[in-house]
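Can anyone check this?
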Amino acid sequence: MLAAEVPRWFVWVAAFAWGAAWGSFFNVAIYRWPRGMSVVSPPSHCPACGAPVRAWTNIPILGWLALRGKASCCGAPISARYPLVELLGAVLSVAIAEQWIVRAEPDTLLLDAAIETVLYFIFAGGLLIATFVDLEWMEIPDEVSLPCAALGLASAPFRAEPGIWSAAVGAGAAYLAVQVVFVWGYERLAGRRGMGEGDSKLLMMIGAFLGWEGALFSVVAGSLQGLVFAIFALIVGRRLTPEIEDRVIDGEVIEAPDEPEPTRVGLLKLPFGPFLALGALEYLLAGDAILSWYFGLLQR
């Protein structure tokens, strides 16, 4: 069966449901991985009272709306992050399916298009998890970046782009550039790290899926957008660094470090992972259009 034979509306509906369902898993990973918990066991439960989550309340997006943002067991508030992540997962799934199934070449087999769609959705899901964990914890879990980087490299021969050579170079060069220059080198010169090791591993994951061009685009676009956000936040006086809470790892409570009084330098410290992820998604879904627009401006 060819991808062109599947009605567009069916692809959209199926992709939305698929993305929203996996968005529930993304929420589990976002909550549990930074706390050293398994995403498999125990089953979904209320973080406030520990009661098991009923199946009907766990329906993506709709469950949160039906409960009006409160747990059915104890009435504790449920963060709006949960439906937001599920909605973002659904939207990303639709956008990826549109590009790799609906807009596929007329002679593309549905199976080939579906496999490529699933691979890029896993990549986008990893970026989504990394973004929300980094926003809350100022770290990117290895459980996201390392398996996704391996998947990107292993699947490169079976994807139309960027090719195995570009994927290998992109993953290796992106990791080494950030790790050597902005982690080890910056720490040696300035006494502190300019970027975290999680950022270098995330960029390795991006390079494995998007090649060296995508990794470079993500760094440039992410830096520009991060700078704009930082300037805006400083103007309005908003804090950029999240407040890190205590966590439990293997039954041991790890206390959050004491934070110094905010300074102008401290305020400029912000998680870079979300901006790398944003740049990667922009390249994945609209890279050609963005580059064409940019180079068109230069030629005027």
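Reply from J.R.: I decoded it. The CA atoms of residues 145 and 201 lie 6 Å apart.
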